[in-house]
Amino acid sequence: MLTLDLSTRRDRLILRFGRIALALLAGVAGALAHPPFGILPGLLGYPLLLLLSERSTSTRGAFWMGWLAGFAYFFIGCWWVAEAFLVNPAQAWMGPFAASLLPAGLGLFWGAATALYHRFRPQGVSRVLVFAGLFCLLEWLRGHVLTGFPWNPAGASWKAGSAASQFAAIAGVYGLSLVTVAAVSAFAPLAGPGPRKARVGAAVLGVLTLAALVVGGTVRLSRAELELTPTVVRIVQADVAQESKWTPEAYRGIVDRYVNLTGRPGAVVPDVVIWPEGALPASANQVFGPESPDGVAIARALRPGQTLMLGLGRGVPDADAPDGARYFNSLLAVTRVEEGLRLTGTYDKYRLVPFGEYLPAGGLMGALGVRSLTHMPLDFSAGARPAPITVPGLPPVQPLICYESLYPGFTPGGAARPEWIVNVSNDAWFGRTSGPLQHLNLASYRAIETGLPVVRSTPTGVSAMIDPWGRVIGDQRLDPGESGVIDARLPKPTAPTLYGRVGDLLFGLGLLLALAPALSGGRITLRRRG
Where are the beta strands (DSSP E) in 26-121? Predict the structure, then answer.
């Protein structure tokens, strides 16, 4: 009898740890589907997660299955955040905590999705739609709650510019996520009970849906005709590592490097030159202040009529602010005129990075000593909601600074629609990790959604000219560790996309259709109880 009890306990332990291993495997597989890995069979992690949540003995058990999968998914997708803490040796000890706490927090959304699915799933193959709907609803919330962090939604598993990615022009990356998760999750019923015909039919429908994504996108790309405007853009990438910026000697060399690349002779004369976010380790007040040698050097590198767009912090006097000023992370447009440089456009970053550009609940965090740990003496202020700016001599442009390029819907698609997007980013914080490569993929989805070209500039890569279908044009790309310039004519935008006109409306309708079986099941249950 004792042997039987021990055997039962052993079997339970094996089962428990087996389920934990499978949950982690589901998250790992989903993460590896994303660029730069591109292992698309990893999408089968989603039906595996569906099965694990179904076979949990309780809602709490289903939550832990989702949380474990989410932790693994975001650990692989976001481990590069630790690299930013290695720039300053005094903060290096925080790297492992950042790399583990971020996925632990983001995994809560996956846990909530699987718990809700376990609680409200209907019978039959329609449960596939309910799983996809709940999962993508929580993913949408992840991109919005507490300013949101929409890194690597499921739809972005498809490389931007590929055939399947083109569906984002219709329903956005969240709509593409819903269709993708529903299609691959349709394989899950094959491993469950129920009529064989229905289970096989669901899998066949999933295959047909994936095929439709590819075929429809292929047709769209076959009709894509790249047209170029007369506007010539120079993208500057100086390959300046983040950790090498902070001495007076380094500063002088950085200025010289950007100035020399800006003034480098080329086959054509650029109309606009793009420097990245944080190109110079100084504020705009210093760089363009009275008698600043930096401003003089920049003016000499530009020809009359040329415009420079660059990302810098700037201070603005404000009597109501604690220290008499407010600070913004800004994109500035300065144009070379006869007397020097003239400010012709300003955009202040709207979506700030928590703990990087501002401290949430700053008063409380400061009292707890968090501000001193993060070495953030002051917070940036958020600018107005993103809107296009018009610089004389250039087509209207929508600036997006750094991780603002992760957010769908920041670029208007109606009468105020611009003709291009400029994304300046300081990916140098993350070195030669997967982070900058994934950032390029995510930013490229904004081109597909809006039908606008995206000009992207970073200090160390990846800088690129991206066409309105999300594809890097030819060799117009500078990878991590490369220094140089890209001179290219700006592509024309496509006709306004459906997503650009209606936003996430189709995604919302898709959620309602996907969740309908659970909602109708709830009404039936209440009626029976009554």
Answer: none
> What is the DSSP pairing of strand 463-466 with strand 472-478?
antiparallel
Q: How far apart are CA 401 and CA 425, in angstroms?
A: 6
Rounded alpha-carbon distances, angstroms, from residue 373 to 192, 354, 437, 510: 51, 14, 29, 44
Name the strands in the sheet holding 272-277, side by side, starting at the edge strand that comes first in the sequence: 340-348, 325-337, 307-317, 272-277, 228-237, 484-491
Residue 344 · residue 414 · CB < 8 Å = no
Tens digits of residue pLDDT in 167-220: 999 999 999 999 999 999 999 999 988 899 999 999 999 999 999 999 999 999
Tell which phi-psi region holds residue 15, choosing left (phi > 0), alpha (psi between -120 and 50) or beta: alpha
Domains, the chain, with CATH or none: 18-223+509-529 (no CATH), 229-350+385-493 (3.60.110.10)
DSSP 3-state helix, strand, coil percentages of the chain (rounded to 5)? 50, 15, 30
Two tokens, residue 399: 């600036």
Read off the tokens for 330: 């800004």
CB 445 within 8 A of CB 468: no
Q: Are 32 and 434 in contact (CB under 8 A)?
A: no
Model confidence pTM above 0.70: yes
What is the phi/psi pair of residue 350, to 5°?
Answer: -95, -45
Whether residue 249 has pLDDT greater than 50: yes
For residue 341, list its beta bridge partners: 336
> Tell me, what DSSP letter sits at residue 230?
E
The pLDDT tens digits for 96-151 are: 888 899 999 999 999 999 999 999 999 899 999 999 999 999 999 999 998 899 99
Percent of the chain with pLDDT over 90: 77
Question: Mind listing the pLDDT tens digit for each residue in 388-443?
Answer: 999 999 999 999 999 899 999 999 988 899 999 999 999 888 888 999 999 999 99
Mean pLDDT of 337-363: 85
What positions carry a catalytic annotation?
277, 349, 402
* DSSP-based three-state secondary structure for 330: strand
